[in-house]
Fold Glycosyl transferase.
Amino acid sequence: MARILFVPETFNLGETTRAIEIARAVRRLGHDVHFVGYSRRFSSRVTNAGFSFDLLNPELSEAQADMLIAADQGRSIRHPFTTAMLRQRVASERAVYDQWEPDGVVIGSTFSTFISARAAGIPLIYAKPYAMSLGHLGTLRSYPLCAETNRAQRLVNQVAGSVTRMMADYMTWKPRAFRQIARENGVELPRRTIDAISADLNLVCSLQPVLFSAPMGPREAPVGPVYSRSDEELPTDILDLARKRSRPIVYVGMGSSARPYLVKSVLEQLSALNVDVIAAVGKYFGEGQLPELPANVRVWDFLPAQKLAGIIDGSVIHGGEGTVQTACASGAPFAGMGLQAEQRWNVEMCVKFGNAVSFNQRSVKRNELPLLVTEMVQDSDLRTAAQRMKEHMDQLNGAAESARLIMDFIDGG
């Protein structure tokens, strides 16, 4: 029996649920699993799934977690990773390694582990999206800085793609804190930046390599989609609504990286339509902050969205990998809003396949969402493509494939 340590950034919902699904598959193979992390935000998802979890020091505050989400979306260059914080993170991780003695460490975007795992000589596995992977960067032709509604915008994105591809090939910059803490731990980081944040095995948990035969980089393996498959049941209100259906049902999911004012605008615009809206966005509003909405809009903090297949007629979602994959598994078309480059790629991949339409924050500000959603639920071509996408999703189990590759890699090492 092997011991596999999972270290996702638990302020990120998609990353946390991806780790949970892979951990379930590893446990089904008979191996021991343990989680650690730095944020309380979604750590309860881990314990509710039946896994042990230790909160490490230094704990991320809610403000620091929000700062990291803003940096990920390109809205800010500020981050909390000072030299002192990184030093303490690496020490905390190495202490866990010494105590628990894992045979492998599985991460999301937990960059301190690129130092700690190398220092401890433990195999490092990175469960990641295809966007900005080595394979993706090696063939990048366009970087979605802006919506491609005219020739000038397409040209801007093409130039940005060329620049990003060249930077990935030649950039050697690493933050001073990472260089210093690596030296203190006897770790020589790879010369190129992109190699420094690449693991011994990189599991590409995306649809692109499966649907479009996308190229892979060194140490990368396509496993297919990995998204939340919660054991929770749907609320009886939703089941009753489905039985008494009199008009389309639209699901709204915004993951963990949207902002309350944007979610509020989406709900208000959809409430004006002749549809029933079920939304898993309650976490964006504190007690008493949920806007007053008509009876056709029902809001929960969380829904097991993978169980909505056959119930919903469409989704309105952000472009997070897990949220997009769940929408694809529903067999219904979706309208997707990418809040940063990776999310825009996720949405555009489905637009290319034919089961989605895209919108952006400007669309919301211009009150364009009602017309977009009305057309989406009525479009027969979108519905047909959505059913074809579901057929693909039903044949794939990225979590099981990830577990198999992890154990093969560790056994082979």
